[in-house]
């Protein structure tokens, strides 16, 4: 256990473990409501077409159908993720823009009837040219997918920091390269599901498997016109998110409208195929980089161009195209950087945010280029990175401030932990070792929409009998362990045992929390939990001090005991009062110290219910240039990985045998959870490096929309993984903590790429690294 903590830094059992391990956990599928209807959605079979007519008469006439709604039945209000790019309507009005675009929704007495009604809806289409690639969408004369966005450009970024051309003129080494990646799916186990109902107060209650209850509440309130106070969003247990569940979905909106129209609960859920159709997952990227260095290895300049294939709608796309450039500002000292990025609309499902949002493939190419620079200079790749590493207190050329940075320690840890010196350059043919670094935000510095709102609030209530505390948070536990983290932080702040904290989360009635995205929960919600705990502690100690007639400064709570400094104090009257009240509660306390139980009970008797609150929003961050808000964060997580691979020259098959992984999380709150997040990142990065690709036919239909055809890593694919936790002590984090949720994926792909090049000599420029692609690269290598 690190630091002078009683709870923080340990290995607490997860709060949700008993329910999940015994099957008691209740997901949306387990929630049942009296009189509920089944909802189903009609989605476009065309990738791009005008809608000439929609005939719902046969569906309405089907016995068991209660309601059918189309664009004519809902307000003409556009929505999306960023107000700067609201480009979606719940139902297509004049045309459809991808296979899966929503046209109508049905509510019926059972799902079979709802699905049959969907089949009976007749839509007449007038086909339009289908644009499936960036090249097709940008071609001269190509039709505009959205009339408001000429030439199908969703967003464009042009930034320069320093003097890039002057810096290149001083360089001894220039390295250029390109990289191409395919779009991926989030592959969460639980498909999106929801149930909407209107209660007796006229409040729309939406139960949803979301990772952002607040943003869903805001979108539903805006599109329905109900207002925030008339919409409640509650999140039960969720089977994974990873980013694609970080915005409102058509089923959440459609079920809300159907519930309002019918006056009955309406349940809607995506099939696995519909999860692929809705997407909002990883973009396909094209990156080109030019990197310059001096002969001593000093990095001088980076010139970077990126093009993102974004699909039919914006989703998180504006942030994605900025992140692809801004996160390359660290963790190396890079005084001059130019970035030009653009996101292009196509007639495919919309892409959005996924673990390591925007930065994963850009980091993949950058770290590959660093290895090539090191080779040209005759330097060890780790030494090149260490030479250029930023330190705590440094500020990047694009104004990202390093309030803590354990990157050097991470690199040195994986160098030692992997046996780098004994293996690099000494492995047999077909065996390789590679290194890479990662860098990511620990919470977005600003909300998605312009607002001065707090990013999170917490309510903590002391139990009436003093037995513990109950913490209310609107934050989203989606499997990452945030309830456990908040309980540990609150326990440390109050001074009680972890087992004395209960947590209720994921409900907008509990306050505000922007959600589980941008690796924000530990730092931001953790700050609010810490403040609420400290405030509760102060209220209890203030009451106790008044009762004892001493200064409050003499009192503290540690490990559930009241600590009194200075002269002895007679607290027998308080204890006698507690024992006198004892009626079937746990045995009265014993010993020479008052307990938290006695003090909290006294506070209740004197003040009534003891409730404290906490809140957090970041200070003003970043520079003043256009786009400076994207990439700003109160803190930055960093990581390093060494990958060891074997490559079969005959088949092109790659096997990742070992990963040595070090991550700077500032301060581990729960060591077990930190290591689990590191392992999960390795697994997801491994899948994106070797297997994962959403494939389409020539008409824009997905041809592998299932987890049988879309290959994600299994336990059989996972390498031996060694996790090393580095703690730099983040001054802007609660008890020194910062992110580990997303940043740990950043080095995985480039570490594998560099290890494969070490094994084969191949500079591979396209993922996934399927055996076919690697084999063809071998053939090309032999021919050349």
From TrEMBL:
Residues 22-129 form the Aldehyde oxidase/xanthine dehydrogenase a/b hammerhead domain. InterPro entries: Ald_Oxase/Xan_DH_a/b, Ald_Oxase/Xan_DH_a/b_sf, Ald_Oxase/xanthine_DH-like, AldOxase/xan_DH_MoCoBD1, AldOxase/xan_DH_MoCoBD2, AldOxase/xan_DH_Mopterin-bd_sf. GO terms for molecular function: iron ion binding; oxidoreductase activity. It comes from the Bacteria. This is Dehydrogenase. It comes from Desulfoferula mesophila.
């Amino acid at each position: 256990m690190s630091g002078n903590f009683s709870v923080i830094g340990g290995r607490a059992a997860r709060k949700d473990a008993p329910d999940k391990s015994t099957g008691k956990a209740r997901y949306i599928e387990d929630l049942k409501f009296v009189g509920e209807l089944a909802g189903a959605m009609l989605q476009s079979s065309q990738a791009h077409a005008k809608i000439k007519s929609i005939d719902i008469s046969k569906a309405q006439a089907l016995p068991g159908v209660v309601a059918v709604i189309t664009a004519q039945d809902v307000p003409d209000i556009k929505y999306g993720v960023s107000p700067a790019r609201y480009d979606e309507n719940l139902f297509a009005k004049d045309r459809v823009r991808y296979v899966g675009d929503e046209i109508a929704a049905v509510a019926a007495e059972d799902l079979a009837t709802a699905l049959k009604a969907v089949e009976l809806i007749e839509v007449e289409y007038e086909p339009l040219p289908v644009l499936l690639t960036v090249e097709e969408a940008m071609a001269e004369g190509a039709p505009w997918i959205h009339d408001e966005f000429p030439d199908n450009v969703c967003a464009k970024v042009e930034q320069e920091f320093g003097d890039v051309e002057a810096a290149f003129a001083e360089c001894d080494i220039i390295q250029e390269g390109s990289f191409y990646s395919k779009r991926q799916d989030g592959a969460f186990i639980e498909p999106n599901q929801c149930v909407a109902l209107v209660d007796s107060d006229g409040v729309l209650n939406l139960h949803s498997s979301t990772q952002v209850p607040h943003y869903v509440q805001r979108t539903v309130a805006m599109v329905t016109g109900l207002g925030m106070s008339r919409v409640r969003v509650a999140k039960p247990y969720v089977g994974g998110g990873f980013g694609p569940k970080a915005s409102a979905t058509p089923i959440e909106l459609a079920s809300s409208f159907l519930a309002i129209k019918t006056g009955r609960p309406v349940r809607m859920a995506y099939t696995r195929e519909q999860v692929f159709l809705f997407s909002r997952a990883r973009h396909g990227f094209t990156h080109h980089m030019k990197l310059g260095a001096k002969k001593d290895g000093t990095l001088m300049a980076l010139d970077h161009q990126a093009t993102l294939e974004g699909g039919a709608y914006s989703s998180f796309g504006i942030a994605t195209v900025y992140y692809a450039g801004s996160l390359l500002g660290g963790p190396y000292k890079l005084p001059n950087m130019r970035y030009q990025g653009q996101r292009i609309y196509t007639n495919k499902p919309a892409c959005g945010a996924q673990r390591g949002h925007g930065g994963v493939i850009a980091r993949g190419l950058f770290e590959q280029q660093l290895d090539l620079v090191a080779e040209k200079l005759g330097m060890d790749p780790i030494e090149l990175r260490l030479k250029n590493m930023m330190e705590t207190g440094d500020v990047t050329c694009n104004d990202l401030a390093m309030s803590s940075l354990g990157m050097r320690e991470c690199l040195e840890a994986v160098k030692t932990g992997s046996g780098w010196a004994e293996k690099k350059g000494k492995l047999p043919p077909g065996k390789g070792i590679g290194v890479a670094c990662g860098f990511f935000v620990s919470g977005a510095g600003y909300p998605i929409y312009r607002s001065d709102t707090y990013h999170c609030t917490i309510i903590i209530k002391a139990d009436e009998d003093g037995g513990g505390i109950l913490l209310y948070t609107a934050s989203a536990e989606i499997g990452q362990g945030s309830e456990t983290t908040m309980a540990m932080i609150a326990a440390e702040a109050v001074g009680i045992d972890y087992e004395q904290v209960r947590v209720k989360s994921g409900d907008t009635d509990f306050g505000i929390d922007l959600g589980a995205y941008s690796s924000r929960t530990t730092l931001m919600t953790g700050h609010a939990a810490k403040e609420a705990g400290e405030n509760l502690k102060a209220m209890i100690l203030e009451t106790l001090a008044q009762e004892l007639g001493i200064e409050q400064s003499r009192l503290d709570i540690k490990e559930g005991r009241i600590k009194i400094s200075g002269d002895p104090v007679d607290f027998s009257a308080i204890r006698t009062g507690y024992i006198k009240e004892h009626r079937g509660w746990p045995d009265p306390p014993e010993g020479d110290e008052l307990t938290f139980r006695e003090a909290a009970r006294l506070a209740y008797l004197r003040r009534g219910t003891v409730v404290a609150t906490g809140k957090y929003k970041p200070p003003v961050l970043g520079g003043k240039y256009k786009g400076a808000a994207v990439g700003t964060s109160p803190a930055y997580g960093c990581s390093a990985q060494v990958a060891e691979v074997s490559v079969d020259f005959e088949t092109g098959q790659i096997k990742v045998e070992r990963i040595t992984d070090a991550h700077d999380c500032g301060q581990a709150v729960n060591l077990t959870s930190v290591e689990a997040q590191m392992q999960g990142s390795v697994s997801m990065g491994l899948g994106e490096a070797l297997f994962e690709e959403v494939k389409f036919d020539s008409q824009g239909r997905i041809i592998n929309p299932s987890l049988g055809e879309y290959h994600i890593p299994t336990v059989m694919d996972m390498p031996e993984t060694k996790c090393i936790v580095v703690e730099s002590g983040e001054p802007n984090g609660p008890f020194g903590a910062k992110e580990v949720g997303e940043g740990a994926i950043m080095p995985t792909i480039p570490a594998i790429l560099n290890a494969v090049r070490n094994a084969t000599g191949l500079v591979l420029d396209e993922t996934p690294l399927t055996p076919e692609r690697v084999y063809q690269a071998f053939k090309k290598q032999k021919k050349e």
